[in-house]
Amino acid sequence: MDNFFQFFIDNRDFIYLIILSIFLGIEVISNVPAILHTPLMSGANAIHGVVIIGAIIVMGHADSNNTLAMILGFIAVLLGTLNVVGGFVVTDRMLEMFKKKDKK
Question: Are 45 and 92 in the same domain?
Fold first, then answer.
């Protein structure tokens, strides 16, 4: 328990920054109009392709004998890919709603 308190004392500035960022993020997102929420979120998901690049770089630098690092890196690449693909799918479905329908 002493280790936890020592960690908190040593890193309290960073912990306060994270807590402030959480409250700021909640405030910003709650004030986004509903009509803009889906396009912003799908765009943000597509931008998160950086996660895939980062996971690939980390896996490349990991020791090949470290199975845990390889498994976590693979999971990060997989989840990042799903996030990016989901962002593009949501954006595509949203744009389909605004296309004019052909009359037959």
Answer: yes
Rounded to the nearest 5°, which phi and psi values hold at 59?
Answer: -65, -35
- Say which residues have a Cβ less than 8 Å from residue 51's Cβ, sequence separation at least 6: 76, 79, 80, 83
Per-residue pLDDT tens for 23-34? 998 888 788 776
101: domain range? 35-104
Clarify whether residues 24 and 75 are in a common domain.
Answer: no
Three-state SS for 99? coil
- pLDDT at residue 38 in the model: 67
Instruction: State the pTM of this model.
Output: 0.56
Strands (E), 1-104: none
Phi, psi of 4 (to 5 degrees): -65, -45
